[in-house]
Amino acid sequence: MLVKMVMELEDVPGQLLKGLEPIARYGGNIKSIMHQRERKTPLGRLPVMLIFEVRDQATLKRILAALKEAGIRVTQLGEREGEILTTVLLVGHIVHTDIRHTIDQLNAIKGVTVSELNLAVGSMGRESSARMTIAANDRELAQLAISRLQTIAEKKGLLLVTSVEAI
Amino acid sequence: MLVKMVMELEDVPGQLLKGLEPIARYGGNIKSIMHQRERKTPLGRLPVMLIFEVRDQATLKRILAALKEAGIRVTQLGEREGEILTTVLLVGHIVHTDIRHTIDQLNAIKGVTVSELNLAVGSMGRESSARMTIAANDRELAQLAISRLQTIAEKKGLLLVTSVEAI
Amino acid sequence: MRIIIIGFGNLGRGICRAFVEKADFLKRAHGLVPRVVAVADEFGAAVDEKGLDLPRLLKIAEGSGTVVGYPGGKRGKLALDLIDEVSADVVFELTPTNIRTGEPGLSHIKRAMQAGKHVITSNKGPLVVAFKELDALAKKQGVEFRYSASVGGAVPVIGLAKKLLSGNEISEIRGVLNGTTNYILTRMSAEGLPQEIIIREAQELGLAEKDPTLDIDGIDTACKVTILANSVLGINAKLSDVKVVGIRRITPEATRLAHEAGQMIKLVGIARRDRLEVGPKLVPQGHPLAVGGTLNAVTFKLDLAGEISITGFGAGPKETSSSLLGDLIDIHRTLGG
Amino acid sequence: MRIIIIGFGNLGRGICRAFVEKADFLKRAHGLVPRVVAVADEFGAAVDEKGLDLPRLLKIAEGSGTVVGYPGGKRGKLALDLIDEVSADVVFELTPTNIRTGEPGLSHIKRAMQAGKHVITSNKGPLVVAFKELDALAKKQGVEFRYSASVGGAVPVIGLAKKLLSGNEISEIRGVLNGTTNYILTRMSAEGLPQEIIIREAQELGLAEKDPTLDIDGIDTACKVTILANSVLGINAKLSDVKVVGIRRITPEATRLAHEAGQMIKLVGIARRDRLEVGPKLVPQGHPLAVGGTLNAVTFKLDLAGEISITGFGAGPKETSSSLLGDLIDIHRTLGG
């Protein structure tokens, strides 16, 4: 699950580490850090925007408690749904084998959406290609969508090309 | 020296190799090959566009002779001048140290032209940065331009950042 | 060191050329004086226990296609007999690969080991068919058995894992292990040409075999995955354990769609303890496996070092002789001979 | 194997943690049972010829900042005396680097060699100051001397060159060899922030030293270039032979201008027989040296293999223990002990 969080830190050394430590301690995987030094708060604090991944809601609660204990003020918190984007290719007689049905099968998984489809129709007699972007709420759901798609592709005689970083 | 050449080959296996061999034999460094299969000549020949680098005019003549001997028809031939493009960065008080003079010094080398300059003026009191693209007729001239620029940069207190692939 | 070379195609000639050109270097840097005492090809053999005149041998072989014309050459002489009869320290087994039977390389290697000779090979066949048997036989006979050139060409994939990353437990090996398919995919993506045309041109340029089936269908990569699984991961894996998909169905449109999304299609071999696989994969630009042309690249996942990747040329007789020579120097060092 | 560890900061603790966590693996895969018989830090030493209880030692050191509190610990005990008095096979020299004098590491290493003990070090100081002397002393005393961790962190740069590419003549080594500056340049380019802010954040994240001068000014990279020149190219080079330019003058605008032209600015170290150099260079995207974050990357130019590149993490106690452990396993193998 991806979390977007803005915390306010005092502008003295060591503060960033103090804010990151609780996230790391509970296995949070930090994706990006953005300091906004030019946008100090009236109290002279620095807003820091973080995006990180955590296992579940319970873990996030533990992190929030630890931050509070450390005296760190969290000013914004948003769970970013549908934020695991996975790109795959399909090669074969995609249209003939009813791409709509393929997409519906994926969209039927709660927390999974086919967010983009680019189709390149092959020249006469040749196979077509499609690039599909799948949005999922977390890594497990993304994986489930891929394995569902693998099953569909095999049934329909399509070649599925997944990311080298996917399991 | 970069050469652009179009040769016509018969559409049977082995022809491409036959056309490339003389270039390789005389140390030509092939940069790109473009078949234009859809544009067959009325005689059913395939035009192939090549860009390659050779040491000098004499070598090119030897290659042309060898191609003729091998029965390969060369239909277009162009020496591409100013085709070795080198990008460098300069950091320092570029404007104050007279960038015009720096450029003139390079342009004074025959076969070398400063073809592009992008200047990012630093904020108050900070050093500026510039990206310069230098076009040279061959590798030796490009190298000469870089070492000339190095001397100028040292004299003017500028930092010169060259390509990792430059000597 | 006295050397027998079995198979005198591109690789056999390549290593001999390296012996000639680098004689001074090998002596100065490693105290190594390679003496080729016998060479066999499919037609017969050339033998000289005092050491063959390699420039002369190369000239004869390039002219006539066989070493038999070398003074005193033995037409019809069998490699197996040569291995038994000629006294030597190391046998280079460099015959063509047969992935079903492993022959004739498999018999050559066994015979050499039985005769107490060390073996260096680039031949995937025997390794795919009988890795465990050969590994055990080498240990039993107390001889060295090296096959760096069988995976990665000039890229020392196996040595890196076994010698330099030895403190790590390796959980996964992923690699672009076939230069031909990588060349094809790179050009398809860059030029939008159909596969057949690029294959034909690759054949004309000597970058693809006359029958490129083993490359295109991923079998060559699967062989390398099998060898890595056995030699690096210590799994007793067979070629049939690898789930293989080739690149035949990849169209120029597919490479374009990938490119538009900042990705490249690469034929990737994956070896893990729970899964052996070969197939086209999307690789993001800037990824260690996003190498172009005929390059090979391999990434190891490691418990201590995290991830280590290595890249270089996967084929070519000169490039491959880097690995063959590395094996020879290593045996020379190990034995102190 | 009986081991003495001199210096018990991040690296000393890191290798001990690896000994604990990987005890089964080391025994099973390599028949290696590391027994740490003495550890010295700046305050004193802990000694047990039967082998220290490492989990206990780590807990004490992490609590009190020194090993002196270990049962029977000797406050004020000098490392030099320890090296002489305690019977051991290998000494790990892991004290902080001093690039001017090489001390205290230099004295530790010499004393260990004189006492007939093998030496493994990550310490650049002694190597930069006295490479030739130490190399000669090791040979004279017949001991092994390994320093894989001194260049590249977890990336086995020296081993790759010396062990796996040994058949090649190496004409050039180029590398991104400093993780801190690479992290700074990567973030400058991605976020357009000024150097000072990123340095401060890197310090807060533990990615930069309190005094990052040696990194920023290219001195750390120059040390690594010096070590590569000596160990791999066989040149008797000194740190002062390296022409060094750091990254201090690189502005966010410069990284942006580079980015717009499809290039990245990297601090690159170059070692050739005719030139030793460190400086910011433009590296095209997709180039083997175009690695981001704290990654290190090295490319070798070779007469046979053409070009081989290797990439991985250049720092971190766990990552570096990959190299330290690799050296230990290699010594264990070499000695067959």
From TrEMBL, chains A, B:
Which species is listed as the source? Hadarchaeum yellowstonense
Q: What is this protein called?
A: ACT domain-containing protein
Per its UniProt entry, which superkingdom is the organism in? Answer: Archaea
Provide the organism lineage as a comma list.
Answer: Archaea, Methanobacteriati, Candidatus Hadarchaeota, Candidatus Hadarchaeia, Candidatus Hadarchaeales
TrEMBL record, chains C, D:
Show where the Homoserine dehydrogenase catalytic domain sits.
Answer: 156-329
Sorted keywords for this record are: Amino-acid biosynthesis, Methionine biosynthesis, NADP, Oxidoreductase, Threonine biosynthesis
The GO molecular function terms of this record are: homoserine dehydrogenase activity; NADP binding
PROSITE patterns of this UniProt entry? HOMOSER_DHGENASE
UniProt-annotated catalytic positions: K224
Q: Which GO terms describe its biological process?
A: methionine biosynthetic process; threonine biosynthetic process
**Keyword presence, Amino-acid biosynthesis:** yes
List of residues binding L-homoserine? E209
Q: What is its EC number?
A: 1.1.1.3
- The answer to keyword Transferase applying to this record is no
Which InterPro entries has this protein been placed in? Asp/hSer_DH_NAD-bd, HDH_cat, HDH_CS, HDH_short, NAD(P)-bd_dom_sf
Question: To which pathway does this protein belong?
Answer: Amino-acid biosynthesis; L-methionine biosynthesis via de novo pathway; L-homoserine from L-aspartate: step 3/3; Amino-acid biosynthesis; L-threonine biosynthesis; L-threonine from L-aspartate: step 3/5
User: Which residues hold NADP(+)?
Assistant: G7, F8, G9, N10, L11, G12
Record SUPFAM superfamilies: Glyceraldehyde-3-phosphate dehydrogenase-like, C-terminal domain, NAD(P)-binding Rossmann-fold domains
Per UniProt, NADPH binds at K124
- What range(s) does the Aspartate/homoserine dehydrogenase NAD-binding domain occupy? 7-147
Note the superkingdom of the native organism: Archaea
The entry assigns this protein to a family as follows: Belongs to the homoserine dehydrogenase family.
Cite the NCBIfam families for this sequence.
PRK06270.1, PRK06349.1
Alphabetical list of PANTHER family matching this protein: HOMOSERINE DEHYDROGENASE
This protein is called Homoserine dehydrogenase
Q: What is the lineage of its organism?
A: Archaea, Methanobacteriati, Candidatus Hadarchaeota, Candidatus Hadarchaeia, Candidatus Hadarchaeales
